[in-house]
Write a sequence for this structure.
């Protein structure tokens, strides 16, 4: 080894760390992040500057992009023209740039995801708005630096007259950091700049008065303002974007979804491919066809919906599973004096104002220097014209130009610059007209110098000038917003919006299995049929409850221990007719030992409605429905029960309704709901029917005012009673006289060896369908109109043929579709009811309801005393 060899030992860890740090800073500063002042990355700035040098101004001829890319690569950006061209293309794409900086001619790609043509086929020139970034470049407004081979000078930043970073946004991935800034409307941004100059104390959120939020070139919607407020205040936030859609109905009643716009940075081909995947995977089953009919009139993607599917639900599924609704994560990361920083909206605008002030000051100083230099020359010319004969004689007597210059300086006290200007003056300037022009120019320069001097000395004047120039930009380039901001409650959707609103049958077994299936699964059969198997139950289990409800309905589940749980029908898994279903304990957190004994289905929580509950021992209780509108994951207490008693049923009632309680021995008591005072949830209730020894309540029915009378006359509603052995009958409501609460009741169905005991009692109408379910899991559906209407104290007729040892367990109704008249009445009724605020219903409000429960306990002792006094009197 040579003695001159110099070996420096280096730790490889330190070398790698330093090398990676150098690489990281190079990527951050020279490649990936934009400058806060002009909003451009180095590659973008070099492309525009190269086009500026080629004089590709608006109105000039287009030049081949290959020439532009070649000049940029050869003069300023040493990474190859193939790398430069994609950046040039992006600056010209109107679906990427809110205000494109380059005007392209030829195939520059499309929002469908099509690639641009090769750069030898496309042409480009600068846009008018781009010239506002370059107009003061020659006035020493910004610093220049040497290019990569030190043969040319390039600007470090453009003296932009508008904040391009806010107007067009930016995105880039550096090493260990990334930027993602949305575009904004230039008119709104200019208004915010003017407002911030007028009032520097404005806070970031105050700027929302001027800048409403992002304004994407693809239009669409932004859901809510929470994400906007976040990035205005912190520089980071999440914006939910949604494409513009509408639902059209064709003459054949087939619905189709029309997509008019898509979220920013999404191509139509990506969206369509994703929709096709979802259809193939059967995640969305309501789509029959997808067509792209976009053209000169704009975007039009047609999604044809199958005839038996809801277009609104399909659209919500598209929002959930495709990029038709997506999130734009805002990261306002940019370079400030070469250092990457995350800035909020005020900091971004203030940095631009400070930069703009610096540009205006340097421009003013540049103009002032030039004006003074010109004034200095004009002063020399005036001296020469005032002493014209002597000047001419001196020049003629001089041997060389240098001798003439020295002579002029010495004789008239001129500077070298003034002497040179006199020597360079053409003879035509000696005419009287030219002498007047010099005098006029001299006077005008004095005025300009005075104004420029005042600008240099007073910052307030410079700030006013910035406001005027910003207003000029606004007036020249401002346009209407393309993106609409929708308030969050109106634009958001939840899981319920992904489920079609349809009627389903819900079954709950004795062992706690629940399922839902379409109501048309069970075909109507004639009276006396054998029915269908409703589920493949395990041994000793049987279907205990069956009811029909909308998938959007709420279910209040009441247990035998008096607890209430809250559930939505669509949360119940759909299963086949013979499937067992899902254990209800997996849907609601039942307390140990609790069993579902009653349920209430409803669409809304109306303040004028109540929940009436009855117990096995004949107690009844009325509680406002709104007391159950705030669910808790562990349930809420619905009624206080005495030892040995249990909850049997719970129903909704309103003022004017009658309550019918039926017992196992076939007795029924009818009384008005007004005889039960309204109680809070923790109270116990009062006596509804007096029971004989060994008897107990099995059923409760509510007869509404409409059920009793329609247009002042008895309507078609009747009371249906069915025995355990499948015999039943209908009786007029009028045959059940209204008595007092606590009476023993009257006979509703004769119980004997043939009939067995009473199984259920229900109010029905002629146009209803009856569903009977047995302990063995058999179900039959038949028309109510086929069941005879007979007297109250009769045996009834056979409604279902039972297998040996099987008994009727429960009945339910399937209501027919309402006609237009009855539907109008229902709509008017719903309009008259005050709307409840369902947005407040949420789990996790334990503290609030713990306080409510403590208040209700105070009323508990009072209700118990009422019950004991009543029993003593009887």
């Amino acid at each position: 080894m040579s003695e001159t060899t110099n070996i420096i030992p280096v730790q490889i860890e330190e070398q790698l760390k330093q090398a990676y740090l150098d690489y990281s800073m190079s990527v951050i500063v020279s490649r990936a992040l934009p400058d806060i002042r002009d909003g451009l990355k180095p590659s973008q700035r070099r492309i525009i500057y190269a086009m500026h040098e080629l004089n590709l101004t608006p109105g000039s001829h287009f030049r081949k992009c290959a020439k532009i890319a070649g000049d940029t690569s050869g003069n300023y950006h040493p990474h190859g023209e193939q790398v430069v061209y994609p950046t040039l293309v992006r600056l010209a794409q109107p679906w990427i740039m809110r205000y494109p900086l380059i005007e392209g001619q030829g195939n520059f790609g499309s929002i469908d995801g099509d690639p641009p043509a090769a750069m030898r086929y496309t042409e480009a020139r600068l846009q008018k708005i781009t010239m506002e970034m370059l107009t003061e470049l020659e006035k020493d407004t910004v610093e220049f630096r040497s290019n990569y081979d030190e043969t040319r000078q390039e600007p470090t930043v453009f003296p932009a007259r508008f904040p391009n970073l806010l107007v067009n946004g930016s995105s880039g991935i550096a090493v260990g950091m990334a930027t993602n800034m949305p575009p904004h409307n230039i008119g709104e941004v200019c208004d915010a700049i003017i407002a911030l100059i007028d009032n520097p104390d404005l806070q970031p959120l105050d700027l929302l008065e001027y800048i409403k939020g992002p304004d994407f070139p693809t239009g669409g919607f932004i859901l809510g303002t929470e994400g906007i407020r976040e990035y205005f205040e912190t520089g980071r936030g999440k914006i939910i974007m949604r494409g513009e859609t509408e639902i059209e109905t064709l003459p054949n009643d087939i619905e189709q979804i029309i997509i008019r716009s898509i979220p920013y940075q999404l191509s139509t081909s990506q969206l369509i491919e994703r929709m096709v995947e979802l259809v193939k995977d059967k995640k969305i089953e309501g789509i029959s066809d997808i067509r792209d009919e976009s053209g000169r009139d704009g975007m039009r993607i047609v999604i044809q919906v199958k005839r038996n599917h809801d277009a609104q639900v399909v659209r919500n599924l598209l929002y959930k599973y495709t990029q038709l609704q997506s999130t734009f994560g805002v990261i306002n990361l940019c370079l400030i004096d070469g250092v990457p920083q995350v800035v909020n909206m005020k900091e971004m605008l203030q940095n631009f104002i400070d930069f703009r002030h610096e540009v205006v000051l340097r421009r003013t100083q540049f103009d002032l220097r030039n004006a003074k230099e010109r004034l200095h020359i004009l002063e020399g010319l005036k001296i020469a014209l005032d002493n014209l004969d002597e000047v001419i004689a001196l020049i003629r007597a001089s041997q060389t130009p240098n001798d003439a210059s020295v002579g002029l300086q010495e004789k008239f006290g001129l500077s070298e610059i003034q002497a040179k200007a006199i020597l360079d003056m053409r003879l035509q300037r000696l005419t009287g007209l030219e002498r007047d022009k010099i005098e006029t120019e001299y006077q005008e320069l004095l005025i300009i110098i005075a104004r420029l001097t005042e600008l240099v000395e007073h910052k307030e004047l410079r700030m006013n000038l910035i406001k005027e120039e910003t207003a000029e930009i606004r007036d020249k380039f401002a346009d209407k917003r393309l993106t609409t901001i929708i308030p969050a409650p109106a634009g958001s959707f939840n899981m319920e919006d992904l489920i079609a609103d349809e009627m389903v049958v819900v079954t709950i077994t004795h062992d706690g299995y629940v399922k839902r299936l379409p109501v048309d699964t069970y075909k109507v059969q004639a009276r006396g049929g054998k029915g269908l198997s409703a589920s493949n139950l395990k041994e000793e289990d049987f279907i205990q409850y069956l009811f029909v409800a909308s998938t959007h309905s709420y279910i209040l589940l009441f247990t035998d221990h008096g607890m209430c749980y809250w559930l939505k029908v669509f949360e119940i898994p759909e299963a086949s007719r013979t499937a067992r279903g899902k254990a209800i304990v997996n849907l609601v957190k039942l307390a140990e030992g609790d069993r579902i004994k009653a349920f209430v289905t409803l669409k809304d929580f109306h303040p004028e409605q109540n929940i009436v509950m009855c117990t096995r021992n004949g107690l009844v209780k009325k509680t406002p429905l709104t007391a159950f509108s705030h669910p808790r994951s562990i349930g809420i207490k619905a009624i206080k029960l005495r030892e040995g008693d249990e909850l049997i049923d719970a129903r909704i009632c309103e003022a004017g309704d009658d309550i019918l309680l039926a017992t196992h021995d076939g007795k029924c008591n009818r009384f008005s709901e007004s005889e039960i005072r309204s109680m809070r949830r923790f109270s116990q209730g009062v006596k509804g029917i007096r029971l004989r020894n060994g008897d107990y309540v099995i059923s409760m029915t509510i007869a509404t005012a409409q059920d009793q009378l329609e247009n002042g006359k008895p309507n078609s509603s009747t009371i249906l009673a069915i025995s355990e052995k499948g015999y039943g009958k209908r009786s007029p409501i009028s045959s059940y006289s209204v008595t007092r609460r606590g009476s023993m009741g009257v006979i509703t169905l004769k119980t004997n060896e043939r009939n067995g005991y009473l199984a259920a009692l229900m109010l029905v109408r002629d146009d209803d369908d009856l569903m009977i379910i047995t302990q063995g899991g058999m179900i039959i559906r038949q028309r109510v109109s086929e069941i005879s209407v007979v007297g109250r104290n009769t045996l009834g007729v056979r409604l279902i043929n039972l297998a040996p040892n099987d008994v009727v367990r429960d009945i339910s109704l399937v209501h027919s579709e309402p006609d237009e008249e009855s539907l109008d009445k229902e709509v008017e009724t719903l309009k008259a009811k005050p709307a409840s605020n369902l947005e407040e219903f949420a789990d996790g409000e334990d503290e609030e309801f713990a306080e409510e429960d403590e208040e209700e306990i105070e009323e508990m002792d009072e209700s118990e005393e009422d019950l004991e006094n009543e029993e003593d009197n009887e």
Residues 30-160 form a domain with the Topoisomerase II; domain 5 fold (CATH 3.90.199.10). The two ends are 122 Å apart (CA to CA). Residues 817-865, 868-874 have pLDDT under 50 and may be disordered.
